[in-house]
């Protein structure tokens, strides 16, 4: 009787193993034979994206740049001159850009709808070139700046055939990374993205703390 029960229990266990194997076929292979399909949750998914999708870095930085800094400057009619307001905006852009030496930026030029499309395309490009030159004068390496793809009059903010300053603009955007290696950041994504936040968290030195106690 004891032998019969043992045989029955073994059969039941084997049946249970068969069912488990049917439900989880990877258990029927040696370890490492089945490649993970990314089904271990968000943590695995996010890690894979960070390691294999540098485009995500660019998008995140572009969103930060556009939300924290005014990316647009405007121009007088038929002009490429950067007035005082434009220079102030570009100085702030340069301050932001200097925080991210790994990143390249592209400047797009636009015009209003007055004038021919061919002339306006050239004018838009010259405006972009003026912005690049100014950013370079603020210590940004020219290899990280690009004045390209002038949209001329084809992408107005305000739909009007007349003169409109808001359409006469340049837009600075994050375009990519200095290196072409897709793993240029080598696991330092958070360090780069949040560099200035980390710097702000550093406590002041004793000397700084003391000098801040008195005086006006």
UniProtKB/TrEMBL annotation:
GO cellular component annotations of the record: cell outer membrane
SUPFAM superfamilies: OmpA-like
Alphabetical list of InterPro entries matching this protein: Bact_OuterMem_StrucFunc (IPR050330), OMP_bac (IPR006664), OmpA-like (IPR006665), OmpA-like_sf (IPR036737)
Location relative to the cell: Cell outer membrane
Keywords: Cell outer membrane, Membrane
Mitochondrion is among the record's keywords: no
Residue ranges annotated for the OmpA-like domain, each copy included: 62-178
Highest rank taxon of the organism: Bacteria
Protein name: Outer membrane protein OmpA
Annotated source species: Yoonia tamlensis
């Amino acid at each position: 009787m004891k032998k019969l029960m043992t045989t029955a229990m073994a059969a039941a266990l084997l049946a249970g193993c068969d069912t488990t194997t049917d439900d989880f076929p990877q258990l029927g292979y040696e370890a490492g034979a089945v490649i993970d399909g990314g089904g271990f949750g968000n943590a695995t998914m996010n890690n894979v994206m960070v390691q294999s999708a540098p485009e995500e870095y660019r998008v995140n930085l572009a969103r930060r740049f556009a939300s924290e800094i005014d990316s647009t400057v405007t121009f007088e009619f038929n002009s490429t001159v950067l007035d005082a307001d434009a220079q102030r905006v570009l100085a702030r852009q340069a301050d932001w850009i200097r925080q991210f030496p790994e990143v390249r930026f592209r400047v797009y030029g636009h015009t209003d709808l007055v004038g021919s499309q061919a002339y306006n395309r050239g004018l838009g490009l010259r405006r972009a070139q003026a912005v690049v030159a100014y950013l370079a004068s603020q210590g940004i390496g020219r290899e990280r700046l690009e004045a390209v793809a002038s949209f001329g009059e084809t992408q107005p903010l305000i739909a009007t055939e007349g003169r409109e300053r808001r359409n006469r603009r340049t837009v600075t955007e994050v375009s990519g990374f200095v290196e072409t290696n897709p793993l240029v950041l080598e696991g330092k994504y958070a360090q780069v993205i949040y560099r200035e936040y980390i710097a702000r968290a550093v406590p002041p030195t004793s000397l700084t703390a003391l000098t801040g106690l008195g005086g006006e």
